[in-house]
Structure formats: C-alpha cells, structure tokens
Design goal:
Radius of gyration of chain A: 20 Å
Helix content of chain A: 10-25%
CATH class of the largest domain in chain A: Alpha Beta
Largest sheet of chain A: 7 strands, mixed
CATH superfamily of the largest domain in chain A: Medium-chain alcohol dehydrogenases, catalytic domain
Oligomer: homodimer
Structural class of chain A: alpha/beta
Number of helices of chain A: 9
Strand content of chain A: 25-35%
Chain lengths: ~300, ~300
C-alpha cells in the first residue's frame, strides 16, 4: 500500500508504494483511511522531535472499518483516539489512560500512523462519525478534542474573562471552543489579517493592557508563558496548550507571590468534539487535500489545514 | 520607643530607642507588641529584596490592643494579618483582598512593622488569640496560615500521595498541616538529622524514585521546581510555596505533555491556624527570644524560629 514513512536514521520522510498492509491484532481493527490530516507534531517529528520513532507518520484520520473484533463497527466511518494504553499501569488504573507509561501513540510512538491507505488501531479507541458530519469536517475531531481538554481540566465560568494568546490554527480551535462557555473572550494575536477570522466569536487585539482571569497560551512559542504572566490576574489561571522545543527562563517567585496557577493541557475527549461538530457549533475552514505522493506540497501548504485524500 | 528600622539607602537595619510611637488612623488599632518573630522575608529585605521599603521591619507578632475603633478589642491579645487592602480594586471586590493592587504590607510595603514596642494596624486585620494559646505559640499563626493556604487552594484528598520538598522551617509547618488531611505524606530533604523531627507525622527520605500526586516545593531554592517536576505524577499538581531571587530555566512542554499543574501559594487564613494551634494539632519548637537591641544575634540565630520579646 501507499505510505509516508519516517526514517529516524535519515531524519526525513519517504513515500512508499509497497508498504505491507498491516494485520490487526485480536483487540484491533483494520481501517481503510479516507482522509488524514497533518498536525504540527508531524512537522516537529520531521525536524527530529521524536528521535526514537520510526514508522508511518500521521495521527489525525477519518477511516472506514474493514475488519474488527467488534463486528458492529465493520463498514462504519470512524475517527480514533491516538493513545493506546496498557490498562495495567498506575495511570490506566486511575482514569488517566492518555498518560499510560507504556502507551503507544499512533504515528508518534511505537505505532504506525495514518498517512497510509490502511492502518490498525486498538478498537476501543474508535468513535463512529455521525452521518451528518462530512469526513472533511470529522477530520477536525482530534484537534478539537484537544481544545476541549482545556474546558475538561479547568472550570471556565460564563462570567470569567479569558484571553487566548496566538492567532494560528490552535488558537482558532481553542477560541471557538471557549467561546461556547459564554465567557468574555479576547484573542491576542500579532497579525491583524489573521485576527479578522476570530471576530465573529471573540474580541481581538494586537496589544492590550487588560488583565484576565484565565489566559490560554496557544502561541506555540516558549515566550508565550511570559506574555501570559503579564496578562493574567493575581490568583488567576494560565493554561499552556502548545508544545515546542527549548526552555524558557522563568521567575517562579512571581507565580508564588501572585498565587497564579499554570496548567499544562494536551489530548482531550472525542465524544463532545463530535457532538459540537455535528451541531455545527464549531466551524472550521475547509481542509486542503493532496495525494499522498504529493506530501511535500501538503507539508508546505499554508492553508488552515492540509492533509491527504485516499479515495 | 524602641524600633528596628530598615534604611533602604544604607541597605541595613538600625536599632533606635527614640522612634515615635505611631498614632492610629480612625480605622486602625494601636498595638503594644508582646512578641514578634523573624521571617525569612525580613532577611531577604535586609539583602535588598524590597528596595522601595523604608521603615520598621517585621510582620509576625502577638500584641495587646491599647486603643481601637472597635472598643471590644481593647485589652485583648491579638495576632494580625499582614495585607492592608483598599477595598476598591478588582481584587478587593472579588474576594482576593490579599492581592489588592494598592495594598500595604506590614513591615514589607509602605507600612511600619512589628519590630518595635508599638505598631498601628487596620483593625479588620486583627484576630483575638484564645487564652489557651501562649504568645510564644500564637506567634506561629501567620506562617501556619500560609501553610494552610495550600489546603485552601488545592483539594488534598485523604487518598492522595503527597511529597513536601525541603527539611527546613517552612517544610516543617507545611508538612504538619498537610499530615492532618490523612494523605500519604513523604518529606524529601537533604539532611538526615533535620528529617528526624518530621518522623512522628511523615515518612522521610533523602532520595526517592517514587512519584506523587501532589508535590509541594518548600526548598526555598529556584531548583525546587526541577525536583518537583521529577517527582510529580502525570496530571498531578506542583505547589510552589517558596519565594527566592533569581529565575530558573524550565521546559514548559514537559508540563503540557504530562498535563501537570503548577500552583503558586502565599498568605493564608488565620482563623483555622488559630484553631489548630488551640487544639494542639500542630506543634512547633519553642521560639528563641531576644531583646530588640540584640537584633544581630536574633538574625543570626540557628534556632527553628527566633524573635523579640517586649515584656
């Protein structure tokens, strides 16, 4: 089958046409990929972010179940969570399967991903896509779930003032999700033209002296925390949503004296993400789809989201 | 009157015998100090931590009310909170008076402190000391309240595993307070001999590979956060309790990927601190008391706690 393979020796991606179709284990399903999407993490892997990983890239997909231990799923259109947990460790046994210490992560850690015609996946990670949601929209389930994780972790009240830092893709998804809480939302960005698209659901600014109860860093930059520090109220909350290579120098005493909380946030719940997409409460720009062989163009695309079409 | 005065021009303390007895404002009480105690913050001020402050040092005291707008308090033995709030700002109006942006802080910001025979204080900051508590014990109210602030901010469950980092005074107070929750507590220190005193209410270790749901940094060192990062479980909580000069270099992505929360914690509630001291549920070593003129000895004392006696 066709596959985009990451070789950690060569630190680059290779397009293959003869990669073997995987065989599902007893607990797994075989998925025919319909659409898969590129995430920033994929680009980070290509830059060397995961030196131990070697295999098919990609973790955002919509597919069709070809074979499964759960016969009811066969023929269904699905999306899939990305963390395959062991069920045995302290995290699995305390409701934190996403943090399983033995976990495999599709296209990221010890498990082939979805930039291929077929993929296997632990069946319990699958969610059926409601018929109302086209695949080009359902592809946003995983990143929207990650945005919802903020609301899963932190109580954002309708009366709160919230700032989201950044005017990119991550911020766009987070801002829409947060706007549904009714909170007084301001998106703080650098580019007037990018901020235009936020204006239907948020205030926007390129420069503010206001302060906010909750500040969400979606800048993708190590210095996002420093801007958040300036904008958050005393006793307020900073949610850090973006990962990046490199460290940042922090004066922790500021957070002690002002009793500020900093919360890291990663993967989130799929069911509510599918529900919001089905109801059209979160709307996202169309994904820019390529043939897998044109992966270089797809990786370089400046569209809101790009990916691959396998049909 | 006698007073220990910090002069920010000279960056040193001066012992005076002719400092004027202060006159209380309409909302204030005049306090005759019985006992006052040295806190690490006082030593930091002497090192230049508060370059804007000029005045009488000290913020931990037990005193007797000489005059007050609240006549019922006159003659009573009291302790006092340290943050004098404006009542008007966003923090005062949202239950965060400790963080008032116009606040004066006794012996720290814009307000003479308690290393003197008399002091004035906003009457609403006073708490009557129950007769059962000797002044030498009541002097611990303010630091114990600060320890309780952790439990005020974070839900520490009886079934949680908690590590407190540090084997000094701050850790001793925090560890005792946390031990009352019933949580499985481990104090992580560097000095076997200091850890001895923790053993009646906590496990102790100088080196652990265990992980904990909640890690409280009371090391007083910028690198405490890095040890906390190693010991905290994924999706766990780090409480930072110690302030220090200087920054620390942090890989924030670690906190995002592992969804760890970092919470700063400072001043706390006096009433429960007095209640625990009254019931003898928190016990602390005797304070080492000096005459004010012997302030250098008091500052250099290696006792658990040192301070001044004015009677």
């Amino acid at each position: 089958m066709k596959a985009l393979y990451y070789d950690n020796q060569e630190k680059s991606a290779r397009y293959l046409e003869d990669y073997e179709i995987p065989t599902p284990k007893p607990c797994e399903s075989l998925i025919k990929i319909l659409v898969s999407a590129i995430c920033n993490t994929d680009k980070e892997i290509l830059k060397g972010y995961k030196p131990d990983f070697c295999g098919v890239l990609g973790h955002e997909f919509v597919g069709s179940v070809i074979d499964s231990n759960n016969k009811e799923l066969i023929g269904k259109r699905v999306v899939g969570e990305i963390n395959e947990s062991c069920g045995e460790c302290i995290y699995c046994k305390t409701g934190r399967e996403h943090h399983c210490i033995n976990r495999k992560v599709i296209g990221i850690t010890d498990k082939d991903g979805c930039f291929a015609e077929y993929m296997t996946i632990d069946t319990k990670l699958l969610h059926i896509v409601p018929d109302e949601i086209p695949s080009e929209v359902a592809i946003y389930t995983e990143p929207l779930a990650a945005a919802l994780e903020i609301i899963e972790q932190a109580h954002i009240k309708p009366s709160d003032t919230v700032a989201v830092l950044g005017d990119g893709r991550l911020s766009y998804m987070i801002s829409q999700a947060v706007s549904l809480t009714g909170a007084d939302l301001t998106v703080v960005g650098r580019h007037e033209e990018k901020l235009e698209q936020f204006k239907s659901f948020s205030k926007t600014t390129t420069n503010t002296t206001d302060t906010f109860e909750i500040v969400i860093d979606a800048t993708g930059s190590p210095t996002g925390i420093l801007l958040a520090q300036k904008l958050v109220r005393k006793k307020g909350l900073i949610v850090i949503k973006s990962t990046y290579a490199g460290t940042v120098e922090i004066d922790m005493s500021y957070f002690v004296v002002n009793e500020i909380t900093i919360m890291g946030s990663r993967c989130g719940p799929f069911k509510p993400a599918l529900q919001l997409l089905k109801r059209g409460l979160v709307t996202l720009p169309p994904i820019d789809l390529y043939e897998l062989k044109d992966y270089k163009k797809a990786l370089e695309s400046r569209s809101f989201k790009s990916g691959f079409r396998f049909i």
